Task: structure prediction
Amino acid sequence: KAIVAHALLLARNPRTLIQVVGQALSGAETGSGSGSAGRGWPASLTSSLVNATTAALVNAGSVPMCGVVCAVAVGRINAGEGGKEVVLVLDPEEAELPRLAGGGCFAFMFSSLLGGNAAHAGEGLASSLLWTNYTTAAPFDVAELARARELAEKGARQVWLALRESVENMGSSKPFIKMEQQSQLPHSLSSMEVDE
Result:
């Protein structure tokens, strides 16, 4: 709630309840999904729920928002000789979870109201880090956190661009079946006639 609430203009509709329920319906073998309290790696699940909540609010269209919140997971893997080299992984895959030595979820808000940091001028809106739970068992390293944030921002921007493209195509009249694929349809469907 606290992550997405920054993007909502709640004062515009006083005494209105906005309720979004996010639920993981299935988990993976490592327990990174539903029913896995205390096991697995919840950063991927958290970022998925944040992005699903944002998509639901944008799709509703009736909830005033000042920005769009997008989240990604970043994992930390000790690599190299003796594990001294740190490799940051965006959205770690299931097979990489056992090797993680830290990481977390990063949530960013993308908005035209942020102004200031238009470092990605050709890529759209400015962004601001809203929340992170990035942790590691190693001693705290500011440079590592900055690298993780930079990687997460690039990933969150890709999520935002995909969400924007999805919204732009929502009202389009694009056919679900492309013309090239019609030859693969059963004869009864490809030769269907419409009575007027």
Notes: Helices lie at 2-5, 42-60, 142-168, 187-190. The chain has a mean pLDDT of 80. The first helix runs from residue 2 to 5. The longest strand covers residues 68-79.
